[in-house]
């Protein structure tokens, strides 16, 4: 089974143990000598996408009844976002966007199933994915609704129905539990962290495994649906760049997002999900627009956390302050994200949230050949700031493998540096990462690394940049305690 993909964190008062099926010592017992557990080669094969005919991805509502219902957190326990979609998407050569205002955005909620005496109103939008090229089909979404509930009590079960009562289109009754209050003795019991999920049969085993562990919160750290492994006519591939190399633009098949929203509803209508963007969410389209599906479909506590962007934000979950960062937009010291990060870090009160956890999609510390030192420009800009505020743990995805580092800063073991954890492959249809950069013949050539969306390339050769002068680092990382896969 693909159980290496999920890390469930159990937090007991001030002791944090990361458990990945079996006993792995905590970082406090380190630093450790690197250990690699090779992946069983039989797992290397491609995962198979759920087809449009699978019952879990079918539309099962009528008219303008809500579907793809999800809960997300706001910046603190007293508020959450409820999101859903009404109406049908269209894809083809003659699409007509729905009018977002034509369906109301209402949530009725309360601590009892009946009566649900409270009501909140929100807003709605529609997004388009357009391609100005002969033969390519355009997409327009159903009506996407986001409603923020406020004035909630901590660690409390709430029932809710969402929809538009004026047209008798309300959902069934769902429920969620708010986060505990923020203080050093108060934590969500279990947080599931997953990335690179996709929508394959292996994704379904990841999500089933996750559900069976009863998480209180799900973090999704980028690469969500892999809708961009498809052409607009619905033809998919396991490797887009090798299969459709002559298309005029990198196409997507946006209905995969709707399939994904339907598949996820049983989990995320109950358990809050917090998402941050990965490279598969870029989804370029006409007029250089990007990230339309990501930014439109998820709710983010951006305003509540002082960010004006869907690409970075922060929130509290009990005694943990989570910082979600964007790697595929500007991270430079003079940019908005960096300035926001400085303000956000300065506002953290460690006597209220002792744990400070940051996440973003592509890892800085990674010993695999895949994406080796790809995000180093972001690291050059931001590592010192995160270090100066003593971030405890960083979670990343992108590399389809699990890996945990010792505490490290500037390529050096450092008892005040964060622990970096790559959470492993969530089940998407691309291959898993197997080879390490320090294996004979596998050291990647720097020229093969740059990613055009990562805002530059800073590891020109493996003797410049932050690792300069650390000759051992040329395709070898001595600070990784255990790397590779746990089966
Ligand atoms: C992925 O799913 C297939 C069945 O669809 C299974 O044979 C395979 O072992 C799974 N891969 C992993 C890594 O769990
Ligand atoms: C899709 O939208 C683009 C941008 O508006 C437009 O140029 C193109 O003609 C549309 N394509 C189709 C097939 O309608
Ligand atoms: C989609 O387009 C590709 C490339 O033009 C083509 O090979 C494929 O047969 C098309 N698929 C369908 C279902 O039309
Ligand atoms: C899109 O980006 C390209 C390349 O950066 C640029 O040349 C072009 O002017 C842009 N188009 C629009 C509509 O902004
Ligand atoms: C990182 O280490 C290198 C040398 O090992 C040093 O030149 C550089 O100043 C350090 N950077 C920071 C931000 O401490
Ligand atoms: C490595 O990069 C540095 C700085 O860009 C450069 O001075 C040096 O010549 C490069 N070394 C090699 C072997 O390419
Ligand atoms: Fe990725």
TrEMBL record:
EC number: 3.1.3.2
UniProt keyword list: Glycoprotein, Hydrolase, Iron, Metal-binding, Secreted, Signal, Zinc
Name listed for the protein in its UniProt record: Purple acid phosphatase
A GO molecular-function descriptor: metal ion binding
Primary location: secreted
The keyword Glycoprotein appears for this protein: yes
Cofactors demanded by this protein: Zn(2+)
GO terms under cellular component: extracellular region
Ranges where the Calcineurin-like phosphoesterase domain occurs: 190-402
Subunit structure: Homodimer.
Purple acid phosphatase N-terminal domain location: 66-178
UniProt cross-references to InterPro entries, sorted A to Z: Calcineurin-like_PHP (IPR004843), Metallo-depent_PP-like (IPR029052), MPP_PAP (IPR041792), PAPs-like (IPR039331), PAPs_N (IPR015914), Purple_acid_Pase-like_N (IPR008963)
Catalytic activity entry: a phosphate monoester + H2O = an alcohol + phosphate
Organism: Kingdonia uniflora
Entry superkingdom: Eukaryota
Compartments it resides in: Secreted
Family: Belongs to the metallophosphoesterase superfamily. Purple acid phosphatase family.
Signal peptide location: 1-22
